[in-house]
Amino acid sequence: MELAALEKQLRILQSESTAKIEAATSLADLDDLGTSLLGKKGALTDLLRGIGSLSADDRPKIGALANEVRAAIESALKSRRTVAGAAELSARITSETEDATTPGPLPAFGSLHPIPETISAIAQIMGSFGFTVVEGQEVEDDVTNFQLLNIPEDHPSRDLWDTLYLREPGRLLRTHTSPGQIRTMRTIEPPIRVILPGRCYRYEAVDASHGFEFHQVEGLLVDRGTTLADLKGILDELARGLFGPGTRTRFRPGYYPFTEPSVAVDVSWDGSKDGWMTILGAGMVHPIVLENGGIDPEKHQGFAFGLGVERIAMLRHGIPDLRALLENDLRLLRGLR
To answer: Residues 88, 128: one domain?
Structure first.
């Protein structure tokens, strides 16, 4: 190959290479161009293979020109890499930038379990009538759980409570929240308006409507001139607060050793499928119980009521099986939100 022809081809390679480099828009394209132009099998290497046919005097000239072409291509690549790299970085920053004013994803909010939710609803309703929440103890003694509530030893009324006794003589797991009446009356001077929510225990077989562990809310009001009419008015409002303004109540004669007279309270509301449902027992606090609580029944009268939280929760949420409340099934709990 003649010197002039090789020089011409090198100049053409430099011109075409510079144009291709300027047209490249990404670092990846520039890397490919660098390999195809200056690599071991690149275009410049292919041209220089013809240098062996030149005379000894012409070879240095071509060598110098080849170095000049290589330097020009490398300079063009370096310059274009700077521009393309800056453009890619800018585009990446733009695409990955977070708008601080854009609302973030909402966290997953939990909700109350139906049992504490029902207790809270009862406390809120009763709080509007001046009732405060007082907590009692779960481990009781026989005297407070039974005897001071007008349930003597060996009295047939004890058959109503399937009691779980502890190894320590006279100690047991409370069968109802009613012992809280005695403890409250002995620590608070009348007038008294309290509710006592808590867990209770009885030796019962577990089925769709019974459990050995359950929750109750006890209500107690002691004041001068308290009547059964006051009790009825309060329970009417409690029922409407729990089941809706159209709820109807029905009071039937009942029997509880610690109240006299005693009543069972039924409710019926719009949409209820089972007609009347019994939700609680109540009555005027028995004079013996008032005396055992340190209160003179000639000066003060009171009423008390107790309701099962699980039953209320099941009625409010349409849960057919009490055991579902103890399984912590998130599908059920999410459906009750």
So the answer is: no
